[in-house]
Amino acid sequence: MRGSRFLLVALLAAAAAPAPAVAQAVAAPAAQAATLPADPKPGQVVEIMLPDGVPMKFCYCPPGEFLMGVPQSKQEKQQGVGGQVKVRITKGFWLAQTELTQAQRSALKLRLRGREEAPGTQPDHPTWVNGYAMPPYDERSAIGTIGKLAATVPLPAGWKFSLPTEAQWEYACRAGTTTFFHYGDSLDGEQASCNGEFPHGTDKKVPKLDAPRPVASYAPNAWGLHDMHGNVAEWCLDYYAPTLTGGDDPTGPAEFDGPKPERVTRGGSFGVKAIYCGSGMRKNRHEGAHETALGMRVAIVPAAPGK
Description:
Layout: H1 2-16, E1 45-49, E2 55-61, E3 64-70, H2 74-78, E4 83-89, E5 93-96, H3 102-107, H4 142-152, E6 159-162, H5 166-174, E7 233-239, E8 247-248, E9 262-266, E10 282-286, E11 294-295, E12 299-302
Parallel strand pairs: 4-8, 7-11
Antiparallel strand pairs: 1-2, 2-5, 3-4, 5-12, 6-12, 7-9, 9-10
């Protein structure tokens, strides 16, 4: 009887004791609606917040005119490039301060490639973009990434996410300059990520890099944009054509003239000669191309004429 009394007391005490705390799952921060200033200044920076609290910064590129392309020197004629056209950018736009990073891609819940798969492996490095729009790379393609971004982060009315057109890309890269690179006429691998064993405009040589550098490792241009020269080549919106199109807000040909669609990439990469990283230099790549030297940079552009 006495043992039963003790058992009863123990059971009552246990019942009165507070229940152990249950850990509550904490939801990762969601993306925030973006806001854009009404009257931005050239190079002004805005920050949008992706899921998980990952930021993406954009620099403002104002309307203006420029000469697109490079003059045809003898060397450039041999390399099949050159020729300039006058272009007018009639509407200002925003361009990402850096190339798309692995951290930003992970925040959008997009799969990475190869050795990028491990979370946090190289979050500040540019991500490799598997082609422009070709299956089976859709989720990891440039256009697929733009679509996921548009579905994730609301923008103010009249604006949309996009890849830059070739004209927008070069205009933003130059940021008002007319030199071969946005800072001058020579590159040896110290001013930007390229193959410094083949410099341009100088005899100085720097050892070749084996991989892209973390974004913003080099000084920005006058509008605050980093890595417009080298690191990874960047997809543009345009189909490729051998000759440039001038005029107001050119977008290149409406379709590709050939059996395999090719798009324009700009900026060169860590593994190419310095000359190919120039502001006006361009490259054609098949839409399905995928390699470590191919990346992208996001733009926010007017969704309709008028601003």
